[in-house]
Amino acid sequence: MAQIGRFARAERDARIRGLPRRDLWWRVRNARWAGRRIDWSAYLFLLPFLLPFTVTVLGAIVFGVFVSFTDWQIVGAPHWVGVSNYAQAMGDHWVVGAWSNTLRYAMLYVPGTLLVALTMALYVNGQRRGYVLARAAFYMPNVISVTVVGVVWVWILATQHGLLNQVLGYFGIAPIGWLTDPKWVLIGLAATSIWWDAGFIMVLLLAGLQDIPKELREASSIDGCNDAQTLWHVTLPLLRPALSLSLTLLTIAGLRVFSQIYIMTNGGPADASQSVIGYVYEMGFGKYQLGYAAAISMMLFVTILIVTVVQLRVFREMTH
Amino acid sequence: MTIRYSRRKALKLAGAAAGGAVLSRHLASPHLSFAQGRTTELVHWSWYSASDNTDWSKLIDNFNEAHKGKGVQIRHEFVPDDTYGTKLLAAAATGNAPDFGTAQNGRTAQWAKQGVTVAMEGPLKQAGLDLSDFDRRSLQVCTYYGSLHMLPMDVSTMAVLLNVPYARAAGLDVSKPPQTAADLIEWAQKMTVRQGDTITRSGWMMTGSGALPLVIWNVVAYQMGFRRASPDLKKAGLNPTAGVLAAQWVLDMFDKYKVSTRSIADSDRYRAFGAGAAAMFFTGPWAIRGYADAKLNFISFPIPKIGDNRSSYYEVDGVEMYVQKDKGRYAATAEALKWLSDNSLPWVTTGRVDTPRKSIRASAAFKDGGWPAAYKSGFLEGMAEAQITDIPIAAAPDFEIYGSSILPAKTMDLVWSKQMSPSAAISSLTQKWQADLNAG
Amino acid sequence: MPRLPIVTRRRPLRGTLDAFLWALGMAFALTWAVPLVQMISTSLKPPGEVLTHALAWVPVHPTIQPYIDVFKKPVLEWLLNSVVVTVTSTVMSLITGAMAGYALARLHFPGRRLVFWAVLIVLMIPTEMTIVPLFIGALRTGLVNRGLADTWVAMIIPQVASAFSVYLFRNFFLSLPVELEDSAAIDGASRFRIFVALAVPLARPAMVAASILLFTNYWNTFLWPLLISFQDNMKTLPVGMLIFSPGGIGGGPTDINAYDTVMAAMTVLSIPTLVAFLVLQRQFIEGATGAGIKG
């Protein structure tokens, strides 16, 4: 109260005398930034988040970046080695292989998940009989831990006696080495990830679908468009923001893939499913080369950053 | 008002219950009594999982039972092997390392160099353990950089498990298992089942990648004269033509004799043999318990002579001691380790099948204990020729002969999947090995 | 034309094609449930059947022995740890996330873009890169390997500040109309009062959506609790259950007949999140689609 009183008095004094007799308190309170008064309370709002965030997240990242320029092996002090970890990664053919696997995996996983999730979202959004049940079934895998996903899918995709190959056998298809054939393993893993993640993307797309006014679609069908035409000309263009977000999240997840591969194939067979993070883990946790592992992670992070920014830009331009 | 009160009360009760549970746990834990200075609590990490964990835990429980009220207890913590090293190094770097942990010969030589593991002869001798009771070789392979860094608890080799009903159905006499490469291939062919081109039962199991084809290649190559490193650890990749021939032998089992299929996954090999997807499986004594419990009808026999001799895989498992701030703990740890070694009978008869200690091997309890002879005789007979093992230098993981997602496995996987020629793979490995040997 | 309320919820089927598509969709939904059914069915099989009747849906001789084997381990203690850690982390992330998200969406201050970009970048950083430095930090502060309470704290601290939560709430608050809050501000209410009395009640759908997403995420967190827990009774459920893992995960040799036990362990591990989701699924999905997670 006293402060407000003091503040009001100062203001009144200034008005009466026509002089800028503004004390520090007044100036801070009325400080402007980019043309508007600053909400100082924002910092209080941010404090409970920023304090632990700075220590446990940003601090660890900064240390990780530092480590990528050293030869740190956990025991003993880190020694500065400049960019030699990065140079080494450039010439390491295992790194090249891991990048190629990761990109090919992402090219299966991202469009695959998007397509499946879109189908699910359109189906559920139709609100036909039993849609709540279908929606629950579609989303359910998303709450399961990766350990469970991996262990169960190793069974389903087993080459001999696996569920999927048995079903395919009814149609006269010879057993496929979903997890044992280097040519198929990324497809098997992508299928697992699609099962795991499509439900989540479905929810994102459902959110987008519900923003589309029903009248628009109804109008389009009155205009003589069939369902497919309505989908193509009305629904999908209006779904663009949700699709954009989904694409971004899926790309990040695809490039960062690790746990399910680690559990299901551990990068095999013949390194055909080793992902970038898988290799980071192998170097960091298997060989304790923390510096080298950090350097490869940094390269992946920069790639993700670039891809994300480009994707967001492209979509923004398409929308405008 | 009443609702709020009762809810708060309920919460309080729940909190008290949870707190009580936690508290009682702590009161019961030996950790607290250590603080009171009565009992020394030794912290032990092990990465033994599944049935290994059961058998090993039994040994530790025996110790704690025998030392109840005698001033020392072991706190046994399971640390999965894929994070074991990271966790241990971080703990050691900050002065929190456990007193001792499980280890395999050679693999942690680097830690000896870094001062994470401690030399053990001194403490063990002080504790009264007679090292001359141990097989010399078992101690040799646990000696890194001039001193003993691991106490052998068991010694083992790998042998071939044979599915008896399959052999009988194929008209084979299981009392005379294969002795040569020709025998082995004949047996494998007779027991292989195909549907069209697809092998539905492997006569001789090899996974398409990973640990199993790697260890088979290593054993065959060694029998043929290939050496990863010279005995003095100066030169890498001796007699590479033998290595190439052995790789060709592995490839022939897949493609020429068609007795193995690449469609069994590395991590699925134990299940595959149990499920009848293979008639012969080259594995270690750790696999016995699972098949015995599942009442599978099987016997074991030593790996046949495929090259010039019957050399086989050799592994020593044991415990290593980690660096402590309080050096006084070493003596107590060594005493505990002496007890574990003296009383390792249950571990070396059911967890594993052989012991490094002459006195235990000579005892009647060892001969009559544990698994039936049909299960373990192949492993025990095979011990005579067991000699292919890990190389105790800092870069030991690069030389490992049994494991997946290690450099040799990843490199040879490219051969098994025909993305690289055997000679190219072996020369690439040799190059890396030479660099490792030069680094020491 | 009068419409029955029930019809507005579920569209009736129109014609054969529609009925066919409907059936196809339901078959698709059933297929999606197959892996989990397979898991539960295997967990009820005796060891012999796991090998011989691997694909039978219904166990011939159902048994709960695998579950008895699982509960020989301190599963209830792991469960308690998981509940304490997950619930605390979720609640803290909701509070810190809602406050920070509100500030980023509504308040005007220097550094706003900087904080937002930091949040976005953290969403893209592979956590595998930061986990070892974090672990060393935890060891240095001495939080580790002391007692249960310390381990809980060590497990929770890195999960208090969730960039994901902030991102979610920022987007949510941006989607709310600003007028109501502006008029409250003109009436002289403090920012904090506006936040508590106006913004938070409106954010209920986002809270439900965020809490399920955060809860499942924290429940399934694996690498950090794996590193930070040292004693058996301090593990979380996913970490403790590693002892049942076959080959690939926990590593090392395995016994084959453990597969029934593995599936029982996996079922126990899945039940808390599955039940939470099934109970809250309507609020969750409707909350999430209504106003929650959007770009």
Structural overview:
The complex is a heterotrimer of chains A (320), B (440) and C (295). Chain A is mainly alpha-helical. The model of chain A has no long low-confidence stretch (mean pLDDT 86). In chain A, strands 1-2 form a two-stranded antiparallel ribbon. Chain A has 2 domains: 38 residues, no CATH class; 234 residues, Orthogonal Bundle (MetI-like fold), CATH 1.10.3720.10. Chain A is built from 15 helices and 2 strands. Chain B has 2 domains: 170 residues, Periplasmic binding protein-like II (D-Maltodextrin-Binding Protein, domain 2), CATH 3.40.190; 190 residues, 3-Layer(aba) Sandwich (D-Maltodextrin-Binding Protein, domain 2). Chain B contains 20 helices and 16 strands. In chain B, strands 2-1-3-15-6 form a 5-stranded mixed sheet. A 3-stranded antiparallel sheet of chain B has the order 12-7-13. A two-stranded antiparallel sheet of chain B has the order 4-5. The termini of chain B are far apart. Chain C has 295 residues and is an all-alpha fold. Chain C has 2 domains: 49 residues, no CATH class; 220 residues, MetI-like fold. In chain C, 69% of the residues lie in helices and 0% in strands. Chain C is built from 15 helices and no strands. In chain C, helix 5 runs parallel beside helix 8, helix 5 crosses helix 9 and helix 6 crosses helix 9. The radius of gyration of chain C is 24 Å and the shape is flat. The N terminus and C terminus of chain C are likely disordered. Chains in contact: A-B, A-C, B-C. Chains A and C meet through strand 2, helix 3, helix 5, helix 6 and helix 7 of A and helix 2, helix 5, helix 6, helix 7 and helix 11 of C.
Oligomer: heterotrimer
What's the domain count of chain B? 2
How much beta of chain C, percentage-wise?
A: under 5%
Biggest chain pair contact, residues each? A-C, 100 and 93 residues
Trace the largest sheet of chain B across and list its strands: 2-1-3-15-6
Helix content of chain C: 55-70%
Mean pLDDT of chain B: 89
At CATH level 3, the topology of the largest domain in chain B is: D-Maltodextrin-Binding Protein, domain 2
Mean residue pLDDT of chain C: 80
Give the CATH topology of the largest domain in chain C: MetI-like fold
**CATH architecture call of the largest domain in chain C:** Orthogonal Bundle
Shape of chain C: flat
